[in-house]
């Protein structure tokens, strides 16, 4: 990681709580229309996931003396998750500055969400301009046993829509 003081990989296993099709034995929705995606909070919502991720990042930033925290949340083409909304990001930033020694002492934190207001197509284009090799990624909520993206879950559909809107073909193989 360029310019990183230190890089840590921490295991966070939210399956201990369940409550989501991504963390428990609950079926992942498939073949929903793009119009239906985002209308209600889906069963793929993982309770408090971004709150947990930001809490870990906040603790680590305070230890390092860093004041900028980044998250890849997106509120434009997304599945309706409450912790991907701009008001959540703003509220967490307020919390960070109320609940930490650094914040109380005036060394404020800023939560950055550079993808928040971008469409999936804009995110794909930004990634390409930064050299992202999308063939090494997938976004699938229900990959096959051999790791292929399903092509029909909400996440796959939103990814495919983003590539189409960007005028590109997705380079990964899909099961369907």
Short overview:
The chain is mostly helical and 176 residues long.
Account of the protein in words:
The chain has 176 residues and is mainly α. The protein folds into two domains: 14-117, HUPs (Rossmann fold, 3-Layer(aba) Sandwich), CATH 3.40.50.620; 131-176, no CATH class. 31% of the residues lie in helices and 3% in strands. It contains five helices and two strands. The protein has helices at residues 49-64, 86-98, 101-104, 120-129, 154-165, and strands spanning 68-70, 110-112. A two-stranded parallel sheet has the order 1-2. α4 (120-129) packs across α5 (154-165). The longest helix is centred in the N-terminal third of the chain and has 16 residues, at 49-64. It is globular and about 55 Å long. The chain starts with 48 loop residues before the first helix and ends in an 11-residue tail after the last helix. The model has no long low-confidence stretch (mean pLDDT 93).
Please name the CATH architecture of the largest domain. Answer: 3-Layer(aba) Sandwich
Please give the order of strands in the largest beta sheet.
Answer: 1-2
Category from helices, strands and their pairing: mainly alpha
Provide the residue-averaged pLDDT: 93
N-end to C-end Cα span: 35 Å
The low-confidence runs, each spanning 5 or more residues with pLDDT under 50, are none
Rg from Cα: 18 Å
Taken from the alpha-carbon principal axes, the silhouette is globular
Total count of strands: 2
Which percent band covers the strand fraction? under 5%
Largest sheet: 2 strands, parallel
Pattern of helices and strands: HEHHEHH
CATH level 4 superfamily of the largest domain: HUPs
- Helical content (DSSP H or I, runs of 4+): 25-40%
CATH class wording of the largest domain: Alpha Beta
The total count of helices amounts to 5
């Amino acid at each position: 990681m360029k310019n990183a003081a230190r890089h840590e990989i921490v295991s966070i296993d939210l399956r201990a709580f369940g409550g989501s099709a991504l963390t428990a034995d609950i079926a992942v929705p498939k073949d929903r229309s793009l119009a239906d995606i985002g209308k209600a909070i889906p069963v793929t919502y993982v309770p408090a996931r971004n709150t947990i991720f930001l809490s870990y990042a906040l603790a680590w930033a305070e230890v390092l003396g860093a004041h900028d925290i980044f998250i890849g949340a997106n509120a434009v083409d997304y599945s309706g998750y409450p912790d991907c909304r701009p008001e959540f990001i703003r509220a967490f930033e307020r919390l960070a500055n109320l609940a930490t020694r650094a914040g109380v002492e005036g060394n404020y934190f800023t939560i950055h969400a550079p993808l928040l207001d971008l469409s999936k197509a804009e995110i794909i284009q930004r990634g390409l301009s930064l050299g992202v090799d999308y063939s090494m990624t997938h976004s699938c909520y229900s990959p096959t046993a051999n790791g292929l993206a399903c092509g029909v879950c909400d996440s796959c559909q939103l990814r495919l829509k983003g590539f189409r809107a960007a005028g590109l073909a997705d380079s990964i193989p899909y099961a369907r």
